[in-house]
Design goal:
Elements lengths: L9 H4 L2 E2 L2 E2 L1 H7 L25 H12 L13 H13 L10 H17 L9 H6 L8 H11 L1 E4 L9 E10 L2 E4 L4 E6 L3 E8 L2 H4 L2 H14 L1 E4 L4 E4 L3 H13 L4 E4 L2 E8 L6 E7 L1
Antiparallel strand pairs: 1-2, 3-4, 4-5, 4-6, 6-7, 7-12, 8-9, 10-11, 11-12
Helix pairs in contact: 3-5, 7-9, 9-10
C-alpha cells in the first residue's frame, strides 16, 4: 500500500433522511484511523529480505517500481529481482549493497516515495486536510447538464426502479463507445440530486474491480461528465476538463492512493476498506 493521507468512512456517510442528501456534511466531520496506513520507519521494523512474502514487501516493491528500480509487478514476494532492485537503490544512496531492507533502507525508501509523490502531483492539486475540509462548491451541475455531459464523455447509467423518492440514486454504469455499450460489472455508480448534483461516485466491494482499468476509465468519464458547463438555451454541454487532464488526476489518485484532494473546483475522496468482512472501495467527487 502506498502512503495514506486521510481516511473517511464513505459507506457510513452515504446517508439520507427521506429525500435529503446528507453526504457532504457527515463525511467532512467523520475521520477514522486508516487500517492500511503506510508504515513508518520510526515504528518497530523487522528486516525484509529474499524469501519474505507479506504486505510490507508489496509496499517496498511499489516504491521501487515507481522509482524505476523494479520492472515487475508488486507481487508481495521478495525474490531475486526485488533483491537486485534493493541493491541498486542502496548503491545509488550510498548504502552497503546487501539487498536486505533494514531500517535505514526502509527510511530512505519512504523519503523517495514522498519525493515522487510531490514530483508527479498534477498542477493545482492539493492534499491539504484543512483545504479539503473547508472546500465549498462554487459552480454545481444540474441533472440535465450532467446527462448531456455523459453523452460527450462516452457514458450513461441506468437507474433501477423503486428509487423515485430518493435523491441518492444507485445505478449501473454503462460505457458508450460509438454504437456499442458495455456495463461495468460488479460496481455501482451513484449520485445525489438536491436539487443540483451534490456528488457522484463509483464503488465496488471487489478489490480486483477497483484496481481494474475499467474502473479507472469509468472514473475518468464521470469526472468529465460532471465537470461541465451547460447552455440551456441551445441545450449544449461543454466539458471543462480535457481528457488528458481527467486522466492525469484519476491516475495520480489511484497510483499514489490519495485519499482526499482538491483540484479544478472538485473535492475528491477515495476509500480502500480492506476488511475481508466488509470490503469497500470507492472514488467520489463533489463539484
Amino acid at each position: 500500500m502506498k502512503k495514506k493521507y486521510f481516511v473517511l468512512l464513505l459507506a457510513a456517510s452515504l446517508v439520507f433522511s427521506g429525500t435529503e442528501c446528507t453526504f457532504g456534511s457527515f463525511a467532512a466531520e467523520t475521520e477514522i484511523e486508516s487500517e492500511t496506513e503506510f508504515g513508518s520507519a520510526d515504528e518497530e521494523f523487522s528486516e525484509i529480505q529474499i524469501g519474505d512474502e507479506n504486505d510490507t514487501v508489496v509496499e517496498i516493491q511499489e516504491i521501487l517500481i515507481d522509482a524505476g528500480y523494479l520492472s515487475s509487478n508488486a507481487t508481495g514476494y521478495f525474490g531475486e529481482m526485488t533483491e537486485q532492485a534493493v541493491k541498486d537503490f542502496q548503491a545509488e544512496n550510498g548504502l552497503e549493497e546487501t539487498g536486505v531492507v533494514d531500517t535505514t533502507t526502509y527510511s530512505l525508501l519512504l523519503e523517495k516515495q514522498q519525493e515522487l509523490l510531490m514530483e508527479n502531483m498534477p498542477e493545482g492539486l492539493s492534499t491539504d486536510e484543512d483545504e479539503w475540509e473547508a472546500w465549498e462548491s462554487t459552480k454545481g451541475c444540474g441533472i440535465t447538464a450532467f446527462m448531456h455531459g455523459c453523452e460527450k464523455a462516452g457514458m450513461t447509467f441506468s437507474v433501477p426502479t423503486g428509487q423515485a423518492d430518493n435523491n441518492h440514486k444507485l445505478c449501473k454504469f454503462v460505457f458508450i463507445n460509438g454504437d456499442s455499450s458495455t456495463s461495468l460489472k460488479d460496481a455501482t455508480f451513484y449520485y445525489c440530486v438536491n436539487p443540483l448534483l451534490t456528488y457522484v461516485g463509483l464503488y465496488t466491494e471487489d478489490i480486483e474491480v477497483y484496481e481494474s482499468d475499467d474502473f479507472k476509465e469509468a472514473c475518468i468519464r464521470f469526472m468529465l461528465a460532471y465537470n461541465v458547463d451547460f447552455d440551456s438555451d441551445n441545450m449544449e454541454a461543454t466539458l471543462n476538463l480535457t481528457r488528458e487532464r481527467a486522466e492525469e488526476i484519476v491516475n495520480y489518485c489511484f497510483d499514489y492512493e490519495i485519499e482526499h484532494c482538491v483540484v479544478d473546483n472538485m473535492r475528491i475522496r477515495l476509500i480502500r476498506r480492506t476488511d475481508e468482512d466488509d470490503e469497500y472501495y470507492s472514488f467520489h467527487i463533489e463539484y
